[in-house]
Amino acid sequence: MKLSSRIRAIPSPAGNAWAIYERAHVLKAQGVDVTMLTIGDHDHVTPEPIIAEMARSARGGHTGYAALPGTAELRRAIAARAGEGVGPQNVFVTPGGQFALFCALIAMLDPGDRAAIVDPYYATYPLTVRSAGGEAVIARADPERGFQPDLADLADKLQGARALLINSPNNPTGAVYSRETMEGIASLCRAHDVWLISDEVYDTQVWEGEHLSPRTLPGMAERTVVIGSVSKSHVMTGFRLGWMVAPEEMVRAIWELGVSTTYGVPGFVQDAALYALEYGAQIEAEVTALYRRRRDLAVEALRGANGLRLSAPQGAMYVMLDIRATGLSGVAFAERLLEEHHIAVMPGEGFGEAAAGHLRVSLTLEDDRLVEALQVLAAFAGELARG
């Protein structure tokens, strides 16, 4: 029997972006003490008040089918968070921001349509475009430009495209797109009549500059879909609670997709997210402060290191390290770092060609161990560069 062309087209031609992560887990299962600095998952549990609210909701009976687009209360809270001009009718709640991204692309693309993404990109973006039947075209944001998109290149890639997907604050680079960049992107979207998907799951983690949602720019609300979640802001990655903020017509159309796929998000999970958004301001502030502190510790620990270069991230919970001076690819460096020092990081090649020769390091380890691991990594890079 033969699998469909669509399912066979999903995997990345560049290979498995999570290969190092998976290898690290094999070593851990064998009893090796591996320092995990790979995926963007918190190193501490969801705060107790949120868990208690989820348990209260479940015990209170909210365990049946919940409202498919999201409960009325949660949609109102998300709309309020999104800002002026957004109402509950513009919100669709999904099992995680990743599924919201998939829904948006399904709503925008016909089979074979082109969607532009900016390289470096989050590793799932090309896969999600292909899952929706589209073709991903790549615009570059080179390290020499601070990983800000090249608007001239982007204009070329938008020729004949139906959609553009951006992510600021950016995973993996930590770049926060400037107002000039965002206004340029908005102008291109209007000129080429394309949809814009703005992945803003790191909007609470801004260390330099300011977060600007392109939805707020003139003429963009009717063509922009914003992706959000409570995963990063409230330590709720495993709750799988995300959303899309979109034109009302798209939200209505997505309902049938929800019926035929996930049939919604559990009510007790939605109630936990509602509590987080309405009463979790202190939790959110503490999470933001934690990653700001770790970002600063990482910058200081790597200051003056030989064999690597760090551009201080402007946002998100990662640092991106340029290790091209070692003569190794990001994949080769990450493999040797894991085998020789039992430290697991993500090679840049998993995030696109512009990230080749880089490493993405998650700041998901308590302060002392994080600094120690970064110092070992820096010393290893120095040895390789001298050799």
TrEMBL record:
The keyword Transferase applies. GO terms for biological process: amino acid metabolic process. CDD domains: AAT_like. It comes from the Bacteria. It catalyses: L-aspartate + 2-oxoglutarate = oxaloacetate + L-glutamate. Its EC number is 2.6.1.-. Keywords: Aminotransferase, Pyridoxal phosphate, Transferase. GO terms for molecular function: L-aspartate:2-oxoglutarate aminotransferase activity; pyridoxal phosphate binding. The keyword Magnesium does not apply. Its cofactor is pyridoxal 5'-phosphate. It is an enzyme of class 2 (transferase). Residues 33-376 form the Aminotransferase class I/classII large domain. Belongs to the class-I pyridoxal-phosphate-dependent aminotransferase family. PANTHER family: ASPARTATE AMINOTRANSFERASE (PTHR46383:SF1). This is Aminotransferase.
